[in-house]
Amino acid sequence: MSTESLPAPINPRDLRVSDAEREHVVGILQKAIGHGMLTLDEFTVRTDIALAAKTRAELNAVLVDLAGVINREPGSPTAIPPQEFRSRMSSIKREGAWQVPREMVVNNWMGSSEFDFTEAVINHADVRITLEVTGGSVELLLPENASCVADDIDVVAGKVENKVGAGSGGPRFVLTGRVKAGSVKIRRPHYTRIGSLTIRKPWRISWDT
């Protein structure tokens, strides 16, 4: 068969949805109104949109800001797989205005992984990070107003140092997984101002304009 006759690949967002998927999303909206996340008027509008949706993009649009109630079970129309960052005796670094996924897996074997979230684009109330660390190091630099929960990490001959804890109004980072003979450090940057000069530790220098 000639490759010219093959259809172009379809973006998953453009896939058609079934009545069962529409009803599933309406159930999520009902759960959201029960949690006080939606008003009755918002629920009515979003339900109408969900029932009229033809594609997954249209259906998921009514759930984009409801992180706490989205069903991520396999096969769910709203399931989004976590983004994996894999390091094998190598290094990974993310900084600047990078897009942060709702769920991350940091798979680190004898490597180093650095994630600077201070200038990143974070569109979720919660960012969930699963750690699979063996003999490596992971450093997370969180925004000033962020909070971090790291109590459910299984640590074997390793170390998890959380210097962030509670925050105020910012995204919440929830860490789980396993650290074996490795280290995880979670912290916020420290800023020092000298006139128009701002010095950040870890080191970065900027001037007011």
What is the residue-averaged pLDDT? Answer: 83
Structural class per helix/strand content? alpha/beta
β content, as a range? 35-45%
Helix count from the secondary structure assignment? 3
Largest sheet: 5 strands, parallel
Radius of gyration: 21 Å
Q: Unreliable segments (pLDDT under 50, ≥5 consecutive)? A: none
Please state how the strands of the largest beta sheet are arranged side by side: 1-3-5-9-7
Q: Tally the structural domains.
A: 2
**What are the secondary-structure elements, in order, as H or E?**
HHHEEEEEEEEEEEEE
Broad shape: globular
Termini separation comes to 62 Å
Question: What is the β-strand count?
Answer: 13
Descriptive keywords:
single chain, 209 residues, alpha/beta, 2 domains, five-stranded parallel β-sheet, 3 helices, 16% helix
Describe the structure.
The chain has helices spanning 19-34, 40-52, 56-60; strands spanning 83-88, 91-94, 103-109, 112-116, 126-134, 137-141, 147-156, 159-162, 172-180, 183-187, 190-194, 197-201, 204-207. The protein is an alpha/beta fold and 209 residues long. The chain has 2 domains: 11-80, no CATH class; 83-191, no CATH class. The strands form 3 sheets. It has a 5-stranded parallel beta sheet with strand order 1-3-5-9-7, with no helix packed on it. It has a 5-stranded parallel beta sheet with strand order 2-4-6-10-8, with no helix packed on it. Strand 12 (197-201) and strand 13 form a beta hairpin. The longest helix has 16 residues, at 19-34. It is globular.
